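Re: the multi-chain job from yesterday

Posting the exact lines I submitted so nobody has to dig through the queue logs.
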Amino acid sequence: MSGPRAAGDLLARYYDLDLEDDPGDLDLYLALAARTGGPVLELAVGSGRLAVPLAEEGYEVTGVDMDPAMLDRARASWARAADGVRGGRSGAGSLQLVEGDLVTLNLPQRFGLAFIALNSLFQVGPFERQREAVASLARHLRPGGIAVVDVELPDAAELASWDGRVVLDWIREDPEAAGSTVIRMSSARHDAVTASTQLSVIYDVTDPSGSVRRVSRSDRLHLLTAQQVEDLAVSAGLEVELLAGDHQVTPLGPFSQRVVLIAVSL
Ligand SMILES: C[S@@+](CC[C@H](N)C(=O)[O-])C[C@H]1O[C@@H](n2cnc3c(N)ncnc32)[C@H](O)[C@@H]1O
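And the result, structure tokens for all chains:
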């Protein structure tokens, strides 16, 4: 395969290489899934980093994403995990994957837990689109169901460093292409006027013969304050239960590096 889809497949694969640095949020979603009993909806499911282990744990999980290459990886990851489930290593959940825009999503099911994890809300678009995304979370919950929104709160030093400079993020071996080395570089440029950051990511891949291939992507990330995240939940009709400052649900405080909102559907 060549062309845009092949590049999309590589970008999805290298996203999983990014995730070698574990964000450490799975236990939060496992605990909330246990509290509600599921079923679970993940908006912007990506390659299934959270959805697959939740399904392995025995929950009925639905994951939504607009990127078919990401969904292919989630599907393959679940197929591998489900072999383990059938082999008796864990519970017997399910994973349904839906391709589409999470903002306009209208599934017939209602869920016990619905979440949008790890900065995905930044990718959805400007504030009005983010409002619709949180409304989408809310409308897919049954009464008493729980919504979670998790985004980073970059501090002043981090914002100041997003001045367009190119930084080396990591150099890793590609486990899916023996002998290939991937170098990730990125450049972020923050615009205070729109509170948004243009993030360009470049992956240079050297294969065993020494030839180099470059794939890249560029996204505009629409940042949010903790207050805005709370406002989005309230305007979606959710009752805010907790604003946490990390995945261990330490209450949000001065200089928290992220906001994890946990809210209940009335
Ligand atoms: C940072 S990844 C997060 C993946 C996963 N939730 C995780 O935590 O590893 C963001 C994902 O959001 C998806 N995405 C962004 N905007 C979307 C939209 N409007 N509708 C559906 N998916 C979207 C992208 O395709 C991408 O897979």
